[in-house]
Design brief:
The chain is α/β, with parallel strands linked by helices. Helices cover about 55% and strands about 10% of the residues. A hairpin with a 2-residue loop joins strand 3 and strand 4. The longest helix is centred in the last third of the chain and has 32 residues.
Length: about 270
């Protein structure tokens, strides 16, 4: 490993990488520090076939480019793009919060494109084998589901459960249901088990077919149950939903008071 001063515009940034996120306040403090004191920690790069590739220090590199610094300190090690990705995974995972989909994509690329085995990924990144295996499975989900994971619409546990479904169409169908009803844990596992059971193939019935029980849906406002065609399902924001629930609750109180008054009046006239 050598310490060099290089032109920051000569440093390439891999498309696949893990980058720790900073909130607005931390970002502003970091920029002020660089403007005042400069970059006190060298940027880490690998020399790959005569080119410099960033492994750690994207925030520092961006500030150097923003401030048009002519030279920055870097530590240079010879290596390959596999070394770049593994080193980035190790340092990026330790530095702070980052989108889990970046970890998924990076580990998936090592495993599927570079053909690096799970044990080797564990050895070179410091991640646990269970975590690596989990993210490799998640990397096989459809782009739509991975985007939902990135946006926080589902969690890592929910995404991991969806990997039990091989068919991408069914994956996305179940994903939408999970997202809407917020299935988690045993409830989610049970739901996916039912979905997979229904995919097992046609059931041969030898006797008379019993009538199917009616499908009922519970109203979220009054608690009554009705057939799907009798239940409306408009998109409602949280504020309007709260107002509707409050209005319905007030209406119930008023109706109960009217019924009590009427009953009292009937008793008096009797």
């Amino acid at each position: 490993m050598k310490l060099r001063r290089v032109d920051p515009t000569k440093i390439h940034v891999p498309e696949t990488r893990v980058t720790a996120r900073m909130d607005e306040e931390t970002t502003e403090a970091f920029r002020t520090s660089v403007e005042t004191l400069g970059i006190d920690e060298p940027i880490k790069v690998f020399a790959v076939e005569g080119e410099l590739w960033l492994s750690d220090g994207l925030h520092r590199l961006k500030e150097a480019l923003r401030l048009k610094m002519p030279l920055v300190d870097v530590t240079v090690r010879p290596g390959t793009m596999i070394d770049v990705l593994c080193n980035n995974l190790m340092s990026g995972h330790l530095r702070g919060k980052h989108p889990v989909t970046e970890m998924v994509k990076a580990i998936g690329e090592l495993y599927t494109i570079h053909k690096i085995g799970i044990e080797e990924i564990v050895k070179r990144t410091g991640l646990t084998q269970a975590y690596v295996e989990r993210l490799i499975k998640i990397s096989t989900l459809t782009p739509l589901i991975l985007a939902g994971l990135d946006e926080g619409l589902i969690g890592v546990g929910q995404a991991s459960a969806l990997t039990r479904i091989a068919d991408p169409v069914t994956q996305e169908s179940v994903y939408h249901t999970v997202k809407q009803y917020r299935f988690r844990g045993k409830e989610l596992d049970g739901f996916i088990t039912d979905v997979l059971a229904n995919q097992a193939g046609p059931v041969v019935i030898t006797g008379p077919i019993p009538p199917a029980p009616p499908v009922l849906v519970r109203c979220e406002y009054c608690g009554a149950q009705g057939r799907p065609g009798e239940i409306a399902n408009p998109n409602t924001c949280a504020a309007c939903s709260l107002s509707m629930r409050q209005s319905i609750a007030m209406a119930r109180v008023e109706l109960a008071a009217e019924a009590a008054a009427k009953k009292s009046g009937d008793g008096a006239t009797g």
